[in-house]
Amino acid sequence: MNAEDPDPTSSGHQPIALGMPSGLPANTLLRRVFLPTGDEFELLTVPVAESEGDGITPRGDSQAGFTTTLRDWVGSSTMQPVVVPLYGCLVVQGPGRAAVAGHLEQHAQLELAVIDFAGVESELRDAERRSSVLIDAVEADAAGAAATESHSPDHRAALATRYHEAVAVARRLAMLAPAIHAPPVHPPTLASQLGERLRDRTRLVERHQLATERVELAERVADSCSQRALETAVARKQTGLEWTIVVLLVVQTALLVVDLLARRGTP
After folding, report:
1. What does the alpha-carbon distance between residue 23 and residue 61 come to, in Å, rounded to a whole number?
2. Most CB atoms closer than 10 Å: which of 8, 36, 203, 229?
3. What is the pTM of this model?
4. Cis check: omega of the bond before 187, within 30 degrees of 0
5. How far apart are alpha carbons 134 and 169 in whole angstroms?
């Protein structure tokens, strides 16, 4: 290792290793961080030697081939990566991975913006997954609310669990709202503009609104079904108590009748 080469064990960076794209500059670095959700996030930082406008050609390579290399590395089977060219930089963002290409003096701002966005997007994806599970149970809960035979203690416990889950997801979405609906920064910076473009191209605002609507619907349905199940349980107890009182009155009346007949037969 030359004296000028970075230490691969410092600052959480690693040199090119197995699983990284080939044909990139030798000082390309891979950084692994943990997002607020606990997911691991890989950030590939590629220094470039030449740039013109929004085009990047590291070491004279073709722009299209370089972008394809980064897109293939970042891409996943569930979601296509987002490609953002910005002021001589190139950012390719996907779930769990991102690649940043630009001059060394731009890397700090780009990495900060990418990691911040990845944290918000990862939390939103988790909230979307949980909201989908909740919305899938809405129809069954609504159907079960009309069937009094399904209002068992286990059913009421399941409704309470779903209501608590809906409140927890709604709380997370509310905490994400300031970051997702943040107004543009003035004066704009490289990091702020990258964050705005990533939010726009991944449709974070629309996804947040849809997840919020799903959770609100699931919360209302779980609450109303829980209330109906509770009212049914209370009504059953009242009916049982009323029948108990009726039986006691009948027994008491029978005893009085027997007592009166016994007294009449006594000389």
Report:
1. 9
2. 229
3. 0.72
4. yes
5. 10
